[in-house]
Amino acid sequence: MSGIPCALMRGGTSKGGIFLAEDLPTDPAARDDLLLRIMGSPDVRQIDGLGGAHPLTSKVGVVSVAGDDAADIDYLFLQVAVDRPVVSTSQTCGNILAAVAPFAIERGLVPARDGATVVRVRMVNTGTVAALTVRTPGGEVTYDGDAEISGVPGSAAPVEVAVEPAAGALLPTGNPIDTIAGVEATLIDNGMKSVLVRAADLGLEGGEDPAALEADPAVVRRVAEIRAAAFPLMGIDGTPETTTTPKIVLLSAPAAGGTVRTRSFIPFRVHEAIGVLGAASVAAGVRLAGTVADGLADMPADGAPMRVEHPTGFLDLHVDPVPGDPGAVGESRVIRTARMIMDGRVRPHTYPTTATEEPR
Predict the structure, then answer these.
(1) Residues 6+ apart with CB under 8 A from 264
(2) Which residue(s) pair with 136 in the sheet?
(3) Residue 316 and residue 276: Cα distance in Å, rounded?
């Protein structure tokens, strides 16, 4: 086999394989089988594939020319499970979103302008359109620059991301607070279906290390209970085992001068940072009155970004209010960075994608 064209890219605080749709099977089952073999799943180390043994590094973006004038490209996100033969399209990813725009320019799907190029991206998983501004001096993509984001070493060229409001209900139940699985929660979707819960309501301080949270069976059990209870209320198809939404986000008062502190279950592991659209949903929950963020968040001055604290730093973003409608939010804007790590051909393994044992 000569291999399949693929770019391995970092987008924000995530990493994954980026493909042209024409290079993958059109049948979803055949596509998913191929991606499992490319990423090396199911295997806790993903030792025989591109995956990095963590959900944040086991991601795939599939890119094609948009089917209408509302966008330049279509972007389908697939989350490839690490230790299970599961490929999910139940969510999109705002970090990999930052990678597919420069990828599309590099592949010639979008013509580059001298200086900066705006790429309108339809996130196929949700139907939402985002406008990404990519630095293209001399009509070529550059990944070099002085923009820094928490959770990524060094600096790179900024990718400015502006995401339109999600098409569905911001509060799926219509309530700023619901009681589910015995705890108060805000069920919200500003691009990422999320359940916001006060960390203190689970007996936590809010600044715990992700590994400590994952190793606490009582916390893991409670998070699973809350997540399962949210499924019917949020109208999510699938099961908690095969669907990656909703994310459960624990909120606490900021500890480093930000707006609010977070710990995000994605859904089984704890994010080392926070996803772009997950942060947008948190920020929307902070902006709305009467949610679980009331009394915890420290709102910034008018015009300043919200700073969402996470385990490896913070994410700054703007979530615009809607004048005259305190129950709605407008556009979300954030700076990300991206980098092309490898551009070539990947050779998937050929043995069946059956579960493998954990190394001894």
Answers:
(1) 247, 248, 249, 250, 270, 271, 274, 275, 278, 310
(2) 115
(3) 10
Backbone phi, psi, residue 220, to 5°: -60, -40
pLDDT in tens, 315-340: 999 999 998 898 899 999 999 999 99
pTM: 0.91
270 with 55: CB under 8 angstroms?
no
Alpha-carbon distance of 210 to 265, in angstroms, equals 9
CA neighbor of 136 nearest in space, from 338, 344, 342, 353: 338
* Helix (H) or strand (E) segment spanning residue 196: strand 193-198
Quote the tokens at residue 242: 């095969």
Gap between the Cα atoms of 307 and 319, Å rounded: 11
Amino acid occupying residue 96:
I
- One-letter identity of residue 103: F
pLDDT tens-digit series, residues 105-144: 999 999 999 999 999 999 999 999 999 999 999 999 999 9
Q: What angle do CA 266, 289, 283 make, to 5 degrees?
A: 35
Residue 21 in tokens: 């749709």
CA-to-CA separations, 246 to 228, 229, 231, 234, in angstroms, rounded: 9, 11, 8, 8
Could you tell me the two tokens for 59?
Answer: 């991601």
